[in-house]
Design a protein that fits this description.
The complex is a heterodimer of chains A (about 140) and B (about 130). Chain A is mainly α. Chain A is built from 3 helices and 2 strands; from the N terminus they run H-E-H-E-H. A two-stranded antiparallel ribbon of chain A has the order 1-2. With about 130 residues, chain B is α+β, with helices and mostly antiparallel strands. Chain B has one domain. Chain B has 2 helices and 4 strands. In chain B, the strands form 2 sheets. A two-stranded antiparallel ribbon of chain B has the order 1-2. A two-stranded antiparallel ribbon of chain B has the order 3-4. In chain B, a hairpin with a 4-residue loop joins strand 1 and strand 2. In chain B, helix 1 packs antiparallel against helix 2. Chain B is elongated and about 80 Å long. Chain B starts with a helix and ends with a helix. The chains are: A mainly alpha (about 140), B alpha+beta (about 130).
Amino acid sequence: MIDRLDLELRTEQTALNLRAYRQELLASNIANADTPYFKAKDIDFKSAFENILAGRGAGGIGNVDLARTSPAHIAGQGTGLYEPQAKYRTEYQGAVDGNTVNIDVERSAFAENSIHMEAMLTFIKGSLKDMQTAIQGQ
Amino acid sequence: MFNVFNISGSALTAQSARLNAVASNLANADSVVGADGKPYRAKQVVFQATPMGNDGGNGVRVTQVVESAAPLRMTYDPASPAANSDGYVAMPNVNVVEEMVNMISASRAYQTNAEVMSATKSLMLKTLAIGQ
């Protein structure tokens, strides 16, 4: 029964996690708006979401583990599912200091991401309410 | 998500260090003699991206404060006790216009990062209220 509830919310949970990750990336971009040589990163939400739901890394490749021929070898730490989804932004207008952050783009993306996250939260609340109604049967 | 606070917080610290340098430069734009007995030289902060958290987030930190290499401003003032044999006084190499622009840029960046923090905070509070 509980696993059903889990399954019901899995899509929402993944989307929310991905939104939170994107929020972090955008905060990094905004924080480094004046840092020389900093390259802005972002995710393409649609493809990243599909990849994560399917358990894949960015290029459709799963988590690759290091092949170990001896038990004494140190296990390689695979990256999480989220980090490989981040890609460098294409430069809009070059800067002399090698920075590729366009603050207007970042700010609007941040606002958009916040709204999407709030929408996600509303959906989750709604489906929890639905479930509650179904459980109570009133 | 908590990492956003570290990232934006580091940016606030860095930008306020920059604002500090600007204040120092503007205050000393006409200081003929600095703490070391020589004319004051403009100070500039150097930013560097620094990894924060374990999933690719980047904060920012001030790695060093460098003195501007621009030549000192030579003004003709033979009456000054600091004048050289030709009557010129070496004045600080602070470019006031540049510093004003720097100040506006730093305070805008500070503002933006503070906004990022408060937006994230309200989102997190809403997340806490799920199921209520």
